[in-house]
Amino acid sequence: MGKKIYLCSPHMGGGEMKYVKEAFDSNWVAPLGPNVDAFERELCAATGAKHVAALSSGTAAIHLSLIMLGVGPGDYVIGTSFTFSATVNPIAYLGATPVLVDSEPGTWNMDPELLEEAILGLKSGVLRSGGPAVLPSKGNGEGKLPKAIVVAHLYGMPARMKEIMAVADKYGIPVVEDAAEALGSEYMGRRVGCNSKFGILSFNGNKIITTSGGGALISDDAALIEKARFLATQARDPAPHYQHSEIGYNYRMSNVVAGVGRGQLEVLDLRVKQHREFNAWYRELLKDVPGVRFQSEPSPDFYSNFWLTTIVIDPAVAGTDREKLRLAFESANIESRPLWKPMHLQPVFAGCPAFVNGTSEKLFENGLCLPSGSNIDEEGRERIAEVLKREFKV
Question: Which residues contact residue 63 at a Cβ distance below 8 angstroms, ignoring those fewer than 6 apart?
Fold first, then answer.
C-alpha cells in the first residue's frame, strides 16, 4: 500500500533549527523575544504590510480584529459561508450574529452582488435565514448595517476584492481578509491581506508554511497593530505591578515558534512555486477527462498560491463522483478531503441569516481537495496518478 500520503503536511526548509537553537541558546523560550520581533519584520517584507502582530493562531487574529472594530453583542458581521468555521467562530465569540454570504462561481469566494444584497437586507430589516428555499421575510431584522465583513481567500484563490471593497466602501463597512490559506497569493499585484483594514494569516501545520501553530494580524495602521499586541499580551497596563484596565488574551506567539516561522519564510517563494507546479501537473494529467473542473484564476489579476489543488466532478459525465474518488484514495492510503461544508449548512450556524445562491452547496456536494503537499515525491505522484487514472478510466 505504501506510506500514507497526506493532504498537505509540514515541509521543513532546513533553516528553521538555526533560529530555534538561537532561542534555546539565549534561553528565550517564553512568549515574545528576538525571533518574534524579527518574524514580524520579515512578514512585513513578505506581504507588503506595514505592520504585523505575530499571534498564537489565525483564529486569534480574526478575534482581535473584530474586537478592535467594536463588534459586540447584538451586532451583525457578514462572513463568507464557504470556508472553515474558524473564519466565522470569532463572530460568535463576541456575541454577534454571523450573516453568511454565498460564493460566486469564478473564484468560489464571496459573491459581491450577494454581499450588497445582505447589506441592504440588514439595513432594511429584511433577512433570510436557512438557505435558498426560504424566502425573505419582513420585520425580523434590526435595521442596521453590519459592523464588519470577513472575506476568506479560499484554497489560496484571491476573492474579487475590487468589487467587494467597492461595496464595503459604499456603505462604510470595514473589511477583514482571512488570508489563512493564501499566503503568497496576489490580487492585482498586491499580496492578499493588504487590500483592506486587516489581513489574517495562519501558520497551522497544514498551511503553505508552518510554525506548527500560529498566525498573524497585518495592517497598515500602526496604532491598531500596537493595540492588538497589547490585547494579545493579557492587556497588561504599563505599571510596575500587574494592572489591567481591559480584558486581555494570551494570544502572542512564542519565541521558539517564531524561529520556525523565520526558517519557513526563507522558502515561502519556493513553496508557492512548488504548489503551483503541482497544480499544473494535475491539470495536465486530467486535461482530457470530461466532467472535471479545477478552481482556476479568472484573469491575470488573480495569482493563487494553489495551497490545495481542488476539483469539481460532474458524476453524470465523469463516470465517478466525489465520494467514490475519495474512498479510492483512502483505500490506497492517500488523504483527500471534500471541499468545505458551507457554514449555512452547519448545525451550529443553522439559525443565522444566510444569503445564498446554491454555488457553495454544489461545490461541497461535488468537490474534492486533492493531495497537494510540496513534499510529495515522484513515487507519491505516481501512486496518486494511478488512482486518478483508474477512477476516471484514462
Answer: 90, 93, 94, 249, 251
The pLDDT tens digits for 285-342 are 999 999 999 999 999 999 999 999 999 999 999 999 999 999 999 999 999 999 999 9
Asked if 304 and 185 count as a contact pair (C-beta separation under 8 A), the reply is: yes
Give CA 328 to chain center in angstroms.
28
What is the rounded CA–CA span in Å between residue 275 and residue 90?
Answer: 29
DSSP 195: S
Cα angle 160, 166, 167 (rounded to 5 degrees) comes to: 95
Within 13 Å and on the Cβ side, how many CA atoms surround 245?
A: 4
Q: How far apart are CA 210 and CA 184, in angstroms?
A: 13
Contact 281, 372 (CB under 8 A): no
Q: Do 99 and 252 touch, CB atoms closer than 8 A?
A: no
Would you list the domain boundaries of the chain? 16-267, 269-342+357-392
> 3-state DSSP call for residue 311?
strand
Query: Which residue spans within the chain are E strands per DSSP?
Result: 51-55, 76-80, 97-101, 126-127, 137-138, 148-152, 175-178, 186-187, 190-191, 198-202, 215-219, 292-294, 302-303, 309-313, 337-338, 354-355, 367-370
Can you give the pLDDT at residue 142? 52
The pTM (predicted TM-score) of the whole model is 0.94
Determine whether 221 is exposed, middle or buried from the number of CB atoms within 10 Å of its CB (0-12, 13-18, 19+): middle
The span from the CA of 243 to the CA of 79, in Å, is: 35
Q: Is 30 exposed, middle or buried (0-12, 13-18, 19+ CB in 10 A)?
A: exposed
DSSP code for 155: G
Which class does domain 16-267 fall in? alpha beta
| DSSP H/E element including 266 | none
Report the DSSP beta bridge partners of residue 139: none
How far is CA 336 from each of CA 168, 218, 308, 325, 326, rounded to the nearest angstrom?
36, 31, 10, 9, 6
The span from the CA of 80 to the CA of 340, in Å, is: 11
Using DSSP, state whether 289 is helix, strand or coil. Answer: coil
| Nine-digit cell string for 239 | 505599571
Assess whether pLDDT exceeds 90 at residue 89: yes
Fold match flag (16-267 vs 269-342+357-392):
no
So what's the architecture of 269-342+357-392 in CATH?
Alpha-Beta Complex (3.90)
